[in-house]
């Protein structure tokens, strides 16, 4: 039968799995693909990236595209700063237009307590060389002249944490750019390949069983975000993670009138305007644990109510689509990254609502870990062991939402 597909699109179709790879990466989202991409820099190319669905179908395709590094802990701020810096050069690296717009990021403060927390974050950020400062309501208005900042609102604006390098990027371009780079480098991308079990002998994973056959593996990486606990269970590595849904939605395109990312953790919203003119808006995680990615009416009601308080101009804008994604939340809201008690099974998990921002630096550091068998300093604080040693990295209250 004639092949209906061009021989080569962004990445090649790989009809069969080999019987063995040096590295098997479970999860074909931004983290898994980035890791495969950077492994090539260490000369490791006998690599398979497996995804149970299409590439970028999980958290990489369900976020609100925001990048920033204005975290609360020095460990978090340094780590995400390295990620933003990699993102700054990523379009050129991948030779792929990622539409990265460093339009700036505003976290609104509506109370004395919030002002105190923002001042604290600004200090931590600046001590780590990150451009981040507290600004007044007048400056907020200057940066977002179309936003309603009047006093007669439920949540008057007392100031904001302003983070100029923050912004938005085209999320699916990040996935496609990494995937094309992975393919060019010789690694294999296998969508629709679901991991069903892992074979473990002693302290090592020896094979990965999929719906398309059995693969022997030198190293196995779990980069599956919302499903990370299920894959880790297969390795006999329990994870202190709960899984929740996070919802977002987008309006029809309207004329450009917002050129900064606006976040309010008290109003539970983060809002930006895409290059196409759509307003992209997201909210809180839902408090219950679930894998059911179904949207709720409460979400739409609360989100649109608060968005209209800030942008009454959107009163007649129609919503085009809404979606939900899975968030794997760790107890201290920092990621769980690197080695586990199983020698050749490493994880990128526990990202909560922060995962997409971290993709390039996760890829680079995990690739280094695989190649050298040493944990890079930047990710050492995020080891799974911290929960056994009581050495937490609390990013509580540093999200765009109120967790
Ligand atoms: O923490 O920047 C953030 C974020 C964006 C969307 C959800 N969380």
From TrEMBL:
The keyword Phosphoprotein does not apply. This is Sarcosine oxidase subunit beta. Keywords: Oxidoreductase. The keyword Oxidoreductase applies. Its EC number is 1.5.3.1. Residues 23-66 form the Rhodanese domain. InterPro entries: FAD-dep_OxRdtase, FAD/NAD-bd_sf, Rhodanese-like_dom. GO terms for cellular component: cytoplasm. Signal peptide: none annotated. It is an enzyme of class 1 (oxidoreductase). It holds the Pfam family DAO. GO terms for molecular function: sarcosine oxidase activity.
């Amino acid at each position: 039968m004639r092949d209906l597909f061009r021989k080569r699109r962004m990445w090649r179709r790989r009809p069969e799995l080999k019987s063995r790879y040096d590295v098997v990466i479970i999860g074909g989202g931004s983290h898994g693909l980035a890791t495969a991409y950077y492994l090539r820099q260490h000369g490791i190319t006998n690599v398979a990236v497996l995804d149970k669905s299409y590439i970028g179908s999980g958290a990489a395709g369900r976020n609100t595209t925001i990048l920033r590094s204005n975290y609360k802990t020095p460990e978090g701020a340094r780590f995400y700063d390295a990620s933003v810096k990699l993102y700054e050069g990523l379009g050129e690296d991948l030779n792929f237009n990622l539409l990265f717009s460093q339009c700036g990021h505003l976290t609104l403060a509506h109370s004395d307590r919030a002002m105190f927390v923002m001042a604290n974050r600004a200090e931590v950020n600046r001590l780590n060389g990150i451009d981040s400062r507290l600004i007044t309501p007048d400056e907020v208005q200057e940066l977002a002249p179309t936003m309603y900042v009047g006093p007669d609102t439920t949540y008057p604006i007392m100031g904001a944490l302003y983070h100029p390098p923050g912004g938005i990027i085209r999320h699916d371009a990040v996935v496609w750019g990494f995937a094309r780079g992975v393919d060019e480098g010789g690694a294999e991308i296998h969508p629709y390949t679901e991991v069903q079990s892992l074979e473990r002998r002693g302290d090592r994973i020896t094979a990965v069983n999929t719906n398309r056959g059995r693969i022997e593996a030198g190293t196995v990486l779990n980069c599956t975000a919302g499903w990370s606990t299920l894959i880790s269970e297969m390795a006999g590595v329990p994870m202190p993670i709960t899984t929740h849904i996070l919802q977002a939605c987008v309006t029809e395109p309207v004329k450009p009138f917002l050129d900064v990312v606006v976040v309010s953790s008290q109003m539970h919203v983060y809002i930006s305007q895409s290059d196409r003119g759509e307003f992209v808006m997201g909210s809180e995680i839902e408090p219950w644990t679930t894998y059911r990615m179904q949207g709720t009416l409460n979400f739409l009601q609360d989100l649109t109510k608060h968005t209209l308080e800030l942008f009454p101009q959107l009163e007649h804008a129609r919503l085009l689509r809404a979606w939900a994604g899975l968030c794997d939340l760790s107890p201290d809201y920092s990621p769980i990254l690197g080695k586990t008690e199983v020698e050749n099974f490493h994880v990128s998990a526990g990202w909560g609502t922060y995962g997409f921002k971290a993709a390039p630096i996760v890829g680079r550091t995990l690739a280094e870990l695989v190649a050298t068998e040493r944990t890079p300093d930047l990710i050492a604080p995020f080891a799974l062991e911290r929960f056994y040693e009581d050495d937490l990295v609390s990013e509580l209250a540093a999200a765009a939402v109120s967790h």
